[in-house]
Amino acid sequence: MQYLHEHDWFCRGLSPASIYLSKDGRCVLAPFELAQPLDAPLYLAPEIQRGSPHDPVADVWTLGAIVYEMCAGVPPFKSVDEISSGAVPRIRGRPGSLTDLVARMLSLSPESRPSIQECLRSVPRGSDPHPPQKRSEDRFMEALRSRGREAYEEAMSLFEDGLELSPEQEAEACRLAIANGWSRMAEQFEEAYRPEEGRTTMLMCAAMDRNLGLLRRYVHERRRQDENGWTALMFAAQAGHLECVQILLPEAWIRTTRPASDLAEKGTVMMLAAQAGHADIVELLWPYECCGKDANDHNAYWYAQKAAKNGERIREILDLEGQGKVRRRENIPAIEDILGRKE
């Protein structure tokens, strides 16, 4: 209300029915034209009832009526006639500073009412005796990170009650369920949050956590990309999971669509493996990638120079010697057969 008044706006039809409590404990005002309950006249200042134009002090009267009801449990007035009388019933069991302020806010005379700024200065701030509880979604994520039987039961209970997870939470929850070995939850999670294009898939989660059983089960999700253009193969290569990489080789030709994790746009899985220092994966991948370059004109050899481990070994495998030349191997199958692009 203070913000609105500072910008020359009024609340007009404000009432308890137009105040909502969000999941994180914040009060939110509904669009005023949509919040007109049958008892709205009981929250209209007396001068507005008489046809006077609306102004900030009329909002203060309305706020006083709402605060009164919050303190007493009932509205201050039962009828328009009672409002016109100007007699404000005393609130019992509340601090005198608060009840005096409410009485001033409900004054018949607009000139006698405090401004919204004065109201805010009159009430000392304190701690919330009933802080808002954690959102179900946050409790669900905490349970997933905790592991253990009790955590599993709590997570399943929250999951079955229904959750509104962000795309980031969906991806993390999928990965954690797999990592915890909670296959039933992972399967149900897949059914409830079947990812759209540009989202993390079950196959990607399985690749991150080296879950070969689940990887084979969701191998039909190959070639799907997340919001950065990453594939399950890229996640497996970054983590150094050679067995997963072998299963996911049909994705080797796919490139990223935008920068992420120090891998540029149009980056390749071999660049990612070289940067991560996984020499065995680079050796497996290099026949399938010849002189590939990202959007910044960098190749896998350039990424190998950034590797924290096995950099020399990787550069030896690539055999570039800084000149951009790639050693050729004999008896390499046709790329379509290797990548399965005719499936």
UniProtKB/TrEMBL annotation:
One of its GO terms (molecular function) is protein serine/threonine kinase activity. Coiled coil: none annotated. It comes from the Eukaryota. ANK repeats lie at residues 228-249. Residues 1-133 form the Protein kinase domain. Keywords: ANK repeat, ATP-binding, Kinase, Nucleotide-binding, Transferase. It is an enzyme of class 2 (transferase). Pfam families: Ank_2, Pkinase. The keyword ATP-binding applies. PROSITE patterns: ANK_REP_REGION (PS50297), ANK_REPEAT (PS50088), PROTEIN_KINASE_DOM (PS50011). The keyword Nucleotide-binding applies. InterPro entries: Ankyrin_rpt, Ankyrin_rpt-contain_sf, Kinase-like_dom_sf, NEK_Ser/Thr_kinase, Prot_kinase_dom. Its EC number is 2.7.11.1. This is non-specific serine/threonine protein kinase.
